[in-house]
């Protein structure tokens, strides 16, 4: 009886269907596809300008880091497992498109340089020098250091303190003043407004030069002769007896 019971339990165990636990494993696979596109850019360069290098730029999008998953250990089963289909989505390839720009070449304008030679003609014209006009009481002429015409005549002295000179001023006998001949002072104007009044003259005698101021007009003196103060007369001709001949003077 006991043996029968064990056999019966064994038979029951053998008759029961065998149910085993089945594990499903999913594998995820990501595949990245990259495509490189090469383009060519054509640039027309003006021959008259300095060419500028322009390279086509290529931009690559950032790469996505591939994600990998470790597969779990597979369990051996008697029936095929329904595995999930791997889905592969290729990444869209990035393309860089550059368009060729046509620049029409321009012709450099022709430069024409025209040089005209101007003829230079040098012409010399002779102009005769005008002779210097000299008014003297004698035949002696010369050149003064002051640049005026030379005059030669007698020199005398008089008392200038007796009245007013023809130029409208007074003077003393100690001053170096002079009265010119009426022929040298005559210019058809008022004697007081004579342009010679107040001008300086240089008196040359015996190698010495003395300067005096035109103060008056001598009505009796010959052309080229002068009448001076006694102090000036003694300075020019210390040994004179009241009249000295061949005294030369000119405007200073």
TrEMBL record:
Residues 130-150 are annotated as: Disordered. Residues 1-15 form the signal peptide. Keywords: Signal. The keyword Signal applies. The keyword Nucleotide-binding does not apply. Residues 130-143 have a biased composition (Low complexity). InterPro entries: Expansin_CellWall, RlpA-like_sf. This is RlpA-like protein double-psi beta-barrel domain-containing protein. It comes from Verruconis gallopava. The lineage of its organism: Eukaryota, Fungi, Dikarya, Ascomycota, Pezizomycotina.
């Amino acid at each position: 009886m006991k043996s029968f019971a064990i056999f019966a339990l064994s038979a029951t165990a053998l008759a029961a269907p065998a149910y085993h636990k089945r594990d499903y494993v999913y594998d995820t696979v990501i595949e990245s596809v990259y495509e490189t596109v090469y383009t060519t850019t054509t640039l027309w360069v003006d021959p008259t300008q300095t060419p500028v290098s322009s390279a086509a730029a290529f931009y690559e999008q950032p790469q996505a880091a591939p994600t990998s998953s470790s597969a779990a250990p597979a369990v051996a089963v008697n029936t095929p497992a329904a595995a999930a289909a791997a889905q592969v989505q290729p990444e869209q390839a990035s393309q860089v498109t550059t368009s060729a720009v046509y620049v029409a070449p321009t012709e450099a304008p022709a430069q024409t340089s025209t040089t005209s030679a101007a003829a230079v003609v040098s012409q010399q014209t002779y102009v005769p020098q005008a002779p210097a006009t000299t008014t003297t009481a004698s035949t002696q002429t010369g050149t003064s250091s002051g640049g005026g015409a030379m005059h030669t005549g007698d020199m005398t002295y008089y008392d200038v303190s007796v009245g007013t000179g023809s130029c409208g001023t007074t003077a003393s006998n100690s001053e170096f003043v002079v009265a010119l001949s009426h022929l040298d002072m005559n210019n058809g104007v008022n004697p007081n407004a004579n342009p010679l009044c107040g001008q300086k003259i240089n008196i040359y005698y015996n190698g010495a030069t003395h300067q005096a101021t035109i103060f008056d007009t001598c009505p009796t003196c010959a052309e080229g002769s002068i009448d001076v103060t006694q102090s000036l007369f003694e300075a020019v001709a210390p040994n004179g007896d009241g009249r000295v001949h061949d005294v030369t003077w000119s405007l200073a």
